[in-house]
Amino acid sequence: MTHTETVITVSHLYKKFGKFTANDDLNFEVYRGEIFGFLGANGAGKTTAMRILCGLSSPTSGTAMVAGYNVAEQPELVKRNIGYMSQKFSLYEDLTIWENMRLYAGIYGVTGKAFRDRAENLLSELHFLNHRHELIAGLSLGWKQKLAFTVALIHRPAIVFLDEPTGGVDPVTRRQFWEMIYEAAHQGTTIFVTTHYMDEAEYCDRITIMADGKIKALDTPGNLKASMGVETMNEVFVGLTR
Amino acid sequence: MRTLLFLIQKEFLQIFRNKVLLRLMLVLPVVQLIVLVNAATLDMKDNCVIIVDQDGTSMSQGLISKFNASPFFRVLDITPELEPAMKRFRGERIDAILVIPHRMEKDYHRSGSSSVQLLTNAINSTRAQLTYSYTQALVNDYNGQIGIAQSSVTGSPVRVNASWRYWFNPELNYKYYMLPGILVILVTIIGMFMAAINLVREKEMGTLEQINVTPVRRSQFITAKLVPFWMIGMFELALGLIIGKLLYHIPFEGSLVVLFLFAGVYLVAMLALGLLISTSVQTQQQVLFMSYFFLLIFIMMSGLFTPVENMPDWGQAFNRINPLYYFIETMRRVLLKGSGFADILPLLAGVGAIALVALPLAIYSYKKTN
Description:
The structure holds 2 protein chains of 2 kinds.
Chain A: E1 6-17, E2 20-31, E3 35-40, H1 46-53, E4 61-66, E5 69-70, H2 75-80, E6 82-85, H3 97-107, H4 112-125, H5 141-153, E7 159-163, H6 171-186, E8 190-195, H7 198-203, E9 206-211, E10 214-219, H8 221-228, H9 233-241
Parallel strand pairs in A: 3-8, 3-9, 6-7, 7-8
Antiparallel strand pairs in A: 1-2, 1-4, 4-5, 9-10
Chain B: H1 2-17, H2 19-39, E1 47-53, H3 58-69, E2 73-79, H4 82-91, E3 96-100, H5 104-111, E4 117-120, H6 125-154, H7 174-205, H8 207-212, H9 218-248, H10 256-280, H11 284-301, H12 313-318, H13 323-337, H14 341-365
Parallel strand pairs in B: 1-2, 1-3
Antiparallel strand pairs in B: 3-4
Helix pairs in contact in B: 1-9, 2-7, 2-9, 3-6, 7-9, 7-10, 7-11, 7-13, 9-10, 9-14, 10-13, 10-14, 13-14
């Protein structure tokens, strides 16, 4: 797959909290339709960077263009074009699956028949259409995560940001989750995903490894392994972040 | 616009799904109005009094019988000695001692005047003052009686007596005075606390972050938080007025339309203040503490218990920014006095100004990007 059109451009991005530098001169580009993996130890600055790209946090300096808009100057226009799944599960537990979908679709102006078709389609793919009137609170973590991803896709965003989407999820569900990611990428959605699982890193088109707020490496999994002369992504990760 | 409707729909779904909260919203006003209106009363009955009758004449007997006949006083004991009475005064819950000196009747006949002494228990100063006033009234009354008796004997002219009527609450029913105020507090607490806690809970749960990453406008989000609780507040007011009518027969002298119009503006102001607090803090604990802090000041200054006119100038000035003051005043004026729209217009303008400042501030202080 060749990617030419950039949808995210980050240059000289800094984020400082007092004296602590969470993001230290980040520079990278993400292409349309690719699965871009964001790796790093806990506290390396992944979530901070992702929150800046989503317009939830403003950069201290530097620029980040997402879907054609500057996140510092036009965060609300960025938000029109992205989906986001936070590290902490954040659908409304006291609403049903259907009500959550209707709310988020409605916010983006997907209403009426367009919404029903879209929601039924997404839930059918999950084989979960019959459960649509169940409260989120009663679902297992695996289902919650898959539904959060589905809701993030409901308005057909150009880019979806996933912050550790498979944390605490069983291996079978993780596999299903990655099938969903592939399906979305196949339909042209750019996927920006953070993870701690090195097998998942292998599924990405390109990956970035962060440590101490800096980007230590950015390439395809194959090239990274070759350049370091190791067999697995695990060794790449340990080698770069230690 | 449609986004706003989706957000409001979501709030209502959540509120109506919370059965505990719904039950509380119905039970709370009923219980509060029954308990508080009956408990918070300044009406005094059965003031315990000991009369020290050192005179022992028909004139002192006459005064004592006035006390015995009064519903405000309960005469515990009549004794000729001061010492045992003082002993009991120190040890027991006694409101006052009336001392009738032993030359009272003599002095009266000789010089045309005499005096009695009243010792009141001023631990509760309000009660002490009322005891004094009631005693004064009784003694004056008695004065009038013996004056007439005297004048019929001596032929001197009868003194002119002032008579009075209490307007707007002729029976001085303290419940009529308290109920509107308690209703205001009820509506305020239910509206303001629920909205404020609701918003900050979304922060704690993390659901707010999901909203923040959507293109929802800040004004839409705050409005969606305000509207449901505004409606609940209006409902609570209606419920409270019905209870007041059924249980206490509170008069509706003025127009309910005016009252609800005012309540509508008031609730916008109060809910905006609540939301302003919740947008500036992070946890439910903080929001509760902050709301409680402001509400307590607002309530104590509002004139619910003590007349605003008696407050120092700075206190009266403070009430210009106290929404509760405006609403309690309006409630009492409209319900008891029958004030119309034109009469409460200055109050409406005051609370309207608070709303006009607080609402944009709440929207402004809600940050989608930090």
